[in-house]
Amino acid sequence: MKKVLIISYYFPPAGGPGVQRWLKFVKYLPDFNIEPVVYAPLNPTYPIIDSDLIDEISSQTVVIRKKIFEPYGLASLFSKSKIKSISAGNIPSQRKQTALEEFLIWIRGNVFIPDARIFWIKPSVRFLKKYLKANHIDTVITSGPPHSMHLIGLQLKKKLELRWIADFRDPWTTIGYHKSLKLSAYAENKHKSLEQKVLQSADLIIVTSKNTKLEFEAITERPIAVITNGYDVTTTSKPVLDTQFSLAHIGSFLPGRNPTILWQSLSELVREIPEFEKHFELKLIGTISSEIIETIHAYNLDKYLNVIGYVSHQEAITHQKKSQVLLLIEINSIETISIIPGKLFEYMVSERPIIAIGPRGSDFAEIITDTNTGVFFVYDEKARLKSVILSYFNQFLSGKLCVNAVGLQQYSRKNLTEKLAHLIFQT
C-alpha cells in the first residue's frame, strides 16, 4: 500500500466547510491502495469546532499533530470574538468596521503573509523532512487555504526528492475577501510572488473548478486537474419535511453575500399574498453576519426569521433534507465565479430544490443546471427570482414540491477519491 502525507490545517475537531474535503478523501483512499498520513496542528485556533467529526476519521488514517504558534492567540486578548470572525473570513464591510477591526484586518493582510500560520512552516519542515525519510514517503499533498500549508510543501520539495501535489480548495489572490485585507503594494506583490512560486514548483495542482484552472493556467505550465468537492453517501433516515414553507440557508452567511433581490422578493410576497405570509419561514443555520440580519430587519422580515446558528455537520444535513427550499448565495464579483461552495453537493442530494444567486458565469450555475437540482439567478434577476419562489410555494401548497436530479453519482466522495488516487499513482 502506498503511503501519502497530507498537510492540512483544517482537520477534526475543526468544523465548517474547509474540513470536509480531506476528511472524506482520507476516508476512501485506503479503498484504492493508498494509506493516508495526515499532518495537522495540535493546538490550532479554529473559528468553528465540531467534535462529532472526530468519529469520522478513518481508522486506517495515521494522524500526526504538532504544536503551532498562531498570533491570533495574542490578538484575541483584545477581542476574541472579532479575531474568530476575521480568521473565518467574516470581514465586515468598510463602512461597518470599528477602528480595532480595521487595525486587525490590516495586520492580517500586511504582516502575516500569506496568513497567520506562517510560524508553523519552519518547524513543520524540520520535523517532516525527518519523518518522510524515516517512513519512506515520497508523495506529499498540501491543502490550502491557509496557503502556508503550500509553503511547507514548497520547502520540502526543495530539500527532498518527492512528488508534491498542491490542492487549492479556494483560489489564492483572487479569493473574495482578498481585496478586503487592506493590502499594501508590497503585501500584494508578496502574495502574488508566493502564489507563483507554488504554482510553478508543484508537480501537480488540483483545483475545485474550471475557472480556477483557467486562472492558474495563465500563471503556470504545470499540470492542473479539477476535482470538485462532493457528497458522502449517508444511511440516515429521511426526516419529515418542515410544515412551513421554509427557505433555509446553511453555512456561513458573510457580509458580501447579501442578496438584496432575495429580501425584496420575499418582502413583496409576504405583503401581496396572504397565504405566503401565513406559511413562510426563513431559516439561517450557521455563522451569520450581523449585516445580513440588519438587512433582513430593514425589509421587515423579522417575523419570519428563524436564526438557528451553528450546528454540527450531521444536524446541518438533517436541516438540508427537511427544509422546503435551500438557498445558496455567492458574492457578486468576477473574482468569485470560480467558487463552488462545498455545501452545493450536499444540497444536491437532499432532494430539495435549490435557489442559487451568484455572479454571471459562475461554475456552480452550470452544475445546478446540468443536474436539474434548482435554479440559478444573477443579481439583477429579481422579477424572475420572485416568480420562481412563488412557483415553488404553489407546489408546496399542492404537496408536489420536489426535484428530479440527474447525474449526481459523479460527485460522490468515493468516485472523486478514485479520481484523486489515479493522479497520486501517476509518475
Structure description:
With 427 residues, the chain is of the alpha/beta class. The chain contains 15 helices and 13 strands. Helix 4 packs across helix 5, helix 5 packs across helix 6 and helix 8 packs across helix 14. The radius of gyration is 22 Å and the shape is globular.
Looking at this protein, list some descriptive labels:
single chain, 427 residues, alpha/beta, 7-stranded parallel sheet, 15 helices, 16% strand, globular
Task: List the strand order in the largest sheet.
Answer: 3-2-1-4-5-6-7
Helix run count: 15
Q: Averaged pLDDT, please?
A: 90
* Secondary structure tally: strands: 13
Based on the structure, what is the oligomeric state of the protein chains?
single chain
Q: Cα-atom Rg, whole angstroms?
A: 22 Å
Q: How far is it from the N-terminal to the C-terminal residue, by CA?
A: 16 Å
Class by alpha and beta content: alpha/beta
Short description, anyone?
By secondary structure, this protein is α/β, with parallel strands linked by helices. The chain has 15 helices and 13 strands.
Topology of this protein?
Elements: E1 2-8, H1 20-28, E2 34-41, E3 62-66, H2 72-87, H3 99-110, H4 121-134, E4 139-144, H5 148-159, E5 163-168, H6 185-201, E6 204-207, H7 210-217, E7 224-226, E8 245-250, H8 260-272, H9 274-279, E9 280-285, H10 290-298, E10 305-309, H11 313-322, E11 325-329, H12 343-348, E12 354-357, H13 363-371, E13 374-377, H14 382-397, H15 413-425
Helix pairs in contact: 1-15, 4-5, 5-6, 8-14
